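Ticket #4471: structure export looks truncated?
Reporter: QA, pipeline team
Priority: medium

Steps to reproduce: submit the single chain below to the structure queue and open the exported record.
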Amino acid sequence: MHRLLLTTCLALTLAGCNSNGSGQAIDGNESAAASDPAASPTPDITADAMASHDPGPGQAPDPAQADDQPRPVMKAQVILDRQGFSPGVVDGKMGLSTVNALKGFQEANNLTPTGELDEPTMTVLSRWAQIAATRLVTIPADFAAGPFAPLPKDPVEQAKLPGMGYASLDEKLAERFHTTVATLHALNGGAPAGQNAAAPVPAFSAGQRIRVPNVGADTINAAGIKDVGWVRTLVMLGVGSDQPSLERIVVSRSRGTLTGYDTAGKVLARFTVTTGSSHDPLPLGKWKIYGIDHNPKFHYNPALFWDVSDKKPKVLLPPGPNGPVGVVWIDLSKEHYGIHGTPEPETIGRTQSHGCVRLTNWDAARLAQMVSTSTRVEFVP
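Actual output as written to the record:
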């Protein structure tokens, strides 16, 4: 990928961005191992023992992989996620991101955009009836190898790290299956989120067989991808390389969504996003994409943030999924602004940013493969 003028986007204790162009993003080719130390430089880097294996249309799921109980909302989320209409975190709940995804899916299929699992929508979703809500996987040793450790809060200390990796195997598994740690625990014998805090929490480890959301569309063809680190990131996030091309993307401030269209104006994708704040509002207008940076390093400049002391030092933070802009930076022609990932997927659509457009890491990775420097960008009210 082209080296971009990656501008400072977000204090680590904050969620958002407002960059200054003072530093250059460094291409992630050499940095993927730092962001995911467990990745092994083997020739077959696209091998993924936890990848989805779906029955064909009209075929029943493998009994050994069948759901252990009905999960209608999670099943809908899984199908929507596979079709490019992201419910954000797949948790079996009808939240804001799932409503947004349903509306996008309904628009794409010429249905009334109710945002509900109504009868017409369920009829269309039934095309993928063979897709289960969950599946069983065995945690591979290399995926579970770590190291895992909580990140220090001080950016100066963070700058000393080899990468901004995951704090735990639980967190890494949650991102791989586009969900939350609480949801994984609930699927594997723990209490549902917010209930019975005294219940035992599953301890995930290598070789363990666990139930996960059945996210798919995760096949990767590395033949046309020169950046080995990026291929590893796609595998780590369960994001496939076969994505549609978008002619135009529209970010709506009021709806909190990013919608992608093809050349005929058909809706192909929708993601819930976080956009701006009262201090750093979304810059409405039409913009261009200057470039896309994978696994970017991050130039942290406290002078750019209204709520951070200017006395703090500038530092260069290493790449990684828990970095301030996650695994992707899509550079825009509007100075200081971009579209990027986040270390906190559960906050998307629910907290303010410092002006940029934030998505979950898996959605940002998917979007990065849908757009190019010819994709038009519009920020609307």
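Status: closed, not a bug. The export was complete when the record was re-opened. Leaving a note from the reviewer for reference: The two ends are 32 Å apart (CA to CA).
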